[in-house]
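pasting for the record
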Amino acid sequence: MFTDFNSLKSDAEARMSASIDKFREGLVGLRTGRASVGLLDGIVVMAYGSPTPLNQVASLSTPDARTIGVSVWDKGNVQAVEKAIRESDLGLNPATDGTLIRLPIPPLTEERRKDLAKMAASLAEDAKVAVRHIRKSAMDVVPEIEKSEDAQRANEDAVQKLTDKMIAEVDSLLKAKQADIMSIS
């Protein structure tokens, strides 16, 4: 599959980066007490007879730090949007005014903050496991590419350094998110 170490390393780096990007997306979905339209990314609305992402039936905005505004384009979809938001696990209570739905973001309790910090840590661990799996598959290919033991060792060290760099990035993102979660008042 790989003819040289550079192609193997760039493939591993791309796959590791994709795992970290998925981790970042997961962190966006964790509610921190501040309004963010990213909280609503996973919400799917039954509109026009099929499941549709919320951002394809409404405009999303944050008029202030504690409110998300959802402006539904078609008045016929307002109830479906409300239902989808209520049934999500975000714990938001929509307030509707015509085609505008306001979502007040309640302050987080200390217990909920700790739960969110644990969820962030779990997402981080999943990302680290994914990075380590990619490292292992790259390490398994190194002997097939390089026949000399010195070259194999050098390439394995390079893969390990890349892995360490990616794990450090996950740790850094986790630390920042946990600080954000715990500092919101």
